């Protein structure tokens, strides 16, 4: 049922203690934890639809059908990127309750421990690996592979996992696919060993976990794991299809006090009240916009849109970071190594769906693919060249602090510089070109940069919440990033030319011409560069003088009781997918709020 005016009125008449803006990955996590206290009234506003028991969402392998689908995806796009030949890049985000945890590819990966220590080094006391590690385990409910084969291959150690958390995780049957054996053995020849997923050592080949319930074969999201089990709580209210306009403030002793939230349902504006706090969890793309529409942000942006300035902070919407990637496509020598023949055959797809519906197994129960993390040292390239580039590139003192940490990571053989994945089919979305008509089974080898040096921004384009913001990641604006992508692409070429993986490779489909010089590799990167869809940093947790938007308690500077708790607060990127870290940060955020209740 669509949200009605009566629903909006009923919601606005409740005196909430905490209002959470955003019913996505982080927002529903915080809501579930705060509503454990029955004396507190918790309200959640979410712009997307509530889609319970939707097979397009719950069926793991159908993730690909959700992207660029306006019923599920906000379908954001970057502005044309100068360094990508003025090409825009798609930025999918979940347009449903559950947010991007409901439409992502379900990869459940975390960063290297010292990367979280780096957050504390940037001025955030208590935000380190030691303090976050318990939350990673609190989130997870890991189900081992029943036959134990993955454990025998070193895919996981039970001691590294949470067993009674909220999000169901498992390793799907990718570990047993023929391409995995070749992938693992070839990386081993190149000096990259297999390491257990979720272990403290992250450099190596991994069988990535997926946020999938191994028993039911369905996606585990913030909706299914955090909201649905608690939806009957009388003190927890969710209002979907409600677009947030701004946070309402009162001024007490020259301090901004959040007193409520203005939101729109249909074409009418409403107001709901918060007695204690407002918590933004609208994500990296939309949380900064809510701050700007509320009068917190850069004077230039707010003046342009006629918004009264309540607290000037030029850091709002800045420090945007994203995981960039490039890819190479190959025809395989044996159909066993690719899924193209299956996904291209209506009969095979129908049979696979019938298998899934009957047994909750097979193709449609699959999640993340196998992958790897490698250090910069393992590319054989000299870090000194990158250091020279970084040292001779202009940067503010605050960004230079981050770049210094990034250079330290690149010198460390135990910190990932690159993230790798092998996809068992042709990925037109990445390749920017259709599959050749005469090509049969294909695979893609994807290589990404764990911590790019470029910094972008996201800002509002109007004072209306339904107008998309200007997303400018400034891809490759820092020259070090193209050097990193070139190093990764050269490593990819070595990987696929090394046995036994080379034995599975037929002709190269992309790039169409051999890459020989650095200029060739750079041209290819600019042509196909895409993203792992891991934007962070636009409401960074940093000291105010370093461009911070929130402090280490996640309180927005200039306010008494407005917090942000989502990926936008990550001050510096981590290696790996961000879903698990978002959950962990949200769990810790809830505990920080609870401590204030005592």
UniProtKB/TrEMBL annotation:
* Keywords noted in UniProt: FAD, Flavoprotein, Oxidoreductase
Is Ligase among the key words of this record?
no
Q: What is this protein called?
A: Glucose-methanol-choline oxidoreductase N-terminal domain-containing protein
The cross-references to InterPro entries, in alphabetical order and at most eight, read: FAD/NAD-bd_sf, GMC_OxRdtase, GMC_OxRdtase_N, GMC_OxRtase_C
Q: Where does substrate bind?
A: 532
> What family is reported?
Belongs to the GMC oxidoreductase family.
Q: Name one Pfam family in it.
A: GMC_oxred_N
**Limits of the Glucose-methanol-choline oxidoreductase N-terminal domain:** 94-117, 283-297
**UniProt-listed PROSITE patterns:** GMC_OXRED_1, GMC_OXRED_2
Any one GO molecular-function label of the UniProt entry: flavin adenine dinucleotide binding
Domain of life (superkingdom): Eukaryota
Species of origin reads Helicocarpus griseus UAMH5409
> Which residues are FAD-binding?
96, 244
């Amino acid at each position: 049922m669509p949200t009605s005016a009566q629903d909006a009125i009923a919601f606005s008449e409740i005196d909430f203690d905490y209002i959470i803006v955003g019913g996505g990955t982080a927002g529903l996590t915080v809501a579930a934890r705060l509503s454990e206290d029955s004396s507190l009234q918790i309200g959640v506003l979410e712009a997307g639809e509530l889609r319970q028991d939707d097979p397009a969402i719950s069926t793991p392998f159908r993730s690909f059908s959700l992207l660029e689908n306006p019923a599920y995806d906000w379908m954001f796009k970057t502005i044309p990127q100068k360094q990508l030949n003025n090409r825009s890049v798609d930025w999918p985000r979940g347009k449903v309750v559950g947010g991007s945890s409901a439409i992502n590819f379900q990869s459940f990966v975390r960063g290297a421990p010292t990367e979280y220590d780096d957050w504390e080094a940037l001025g955030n006391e208590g935000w380190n690996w030691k303090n976050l590690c318990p939350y990673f385990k609190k989130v997870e409910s890991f189900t081992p592979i029943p036959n134990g084969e993955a454990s025998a291959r070193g895919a996981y150690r039970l001691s590294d996992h949470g067993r009674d958390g909220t999000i169901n995780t498992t390793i799907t049957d990718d570990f047993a696919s023929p391409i995995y054996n070749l992938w693992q053995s070839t990386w081993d020849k190149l000096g990259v060993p297999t390491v257990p997923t979720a272990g403290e050592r992250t450099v190596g080949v991994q069988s990535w976990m997926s946020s999938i319930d191994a028993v039911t074969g369905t996606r585990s999201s913030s909706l299914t794991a955090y909201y649905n089990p608690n939806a009957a709580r009388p003190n927890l209210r969710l209002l979907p299809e409600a677009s947030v306009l701004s946070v309402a403030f009162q001024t007490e002793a020259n301090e901004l006090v959040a007193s409520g939230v203005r939101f729109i349902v249909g074409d009418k504006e409403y107001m709901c009240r918060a007695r204690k706090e407002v918590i933004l969890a609208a994500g990296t793309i939309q949380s900064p916009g809510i701050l700007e529409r509320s009068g917190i942000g850069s004077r230039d942006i707010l003046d342009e849109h006629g918004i009264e300035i309540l607290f000037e902070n030029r850091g709002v919407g800045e420090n945007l970071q994203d995981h960039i990637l490039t890819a190479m496509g190959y025809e395989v020598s044996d159909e066993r190594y690719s899924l193209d023949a299956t996904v291209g055959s209506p009969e095979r797809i129908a049979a696979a769906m019938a298998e899934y519906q009957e047994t909750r197994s097979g193709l449609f129960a699959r999640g993340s693919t196998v992958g790897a993390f490698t250090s910069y040292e393992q590319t054989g390239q000299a870090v000194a060249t990158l250091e020279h580039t970084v040292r001779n590139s202009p940067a503010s003192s605050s960004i230079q602090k981050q770049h210094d940490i990034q250079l330290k990571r690149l010198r460390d053989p135990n910190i990932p510089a690159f993230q790798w994945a092998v996809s068992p089919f042709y990925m037109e979305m990445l390749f920017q070109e259709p599959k050749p008509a005469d090509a049969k089974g294909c695979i893609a080898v994807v290589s990404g940069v764990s911590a790019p040096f470029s910094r972008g921004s996201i800002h509002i384009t109007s004072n209306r919440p339904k107008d998309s913001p200007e997303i400018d990641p400034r891809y490759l604006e820092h020259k070090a990033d193209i050097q990193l992508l070139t190093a990764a692409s050269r490593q990819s070429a070595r990987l696929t030319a090394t046995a036994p993986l080379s034995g599975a490779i037929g002709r190269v489909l992309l790039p169409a011409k051999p890459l020989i010089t650095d200029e060739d590799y750079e041209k290819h990167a600019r042509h196909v560069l895409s993203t792992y869809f891991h934007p962070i940093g636009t409401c960074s947790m940093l000291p105010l003088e370093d461009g911070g938007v929130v402090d280490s308690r996640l309180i927005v500077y200039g306010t008494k009781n407005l917090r942000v708790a989502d990926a936008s607060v990550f001050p510096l990127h981590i290696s790996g997918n961000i879903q698990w870290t978002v959950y962990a940060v949200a769990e810790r955020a809830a505990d920080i709020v609870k401590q204030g209740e005592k």
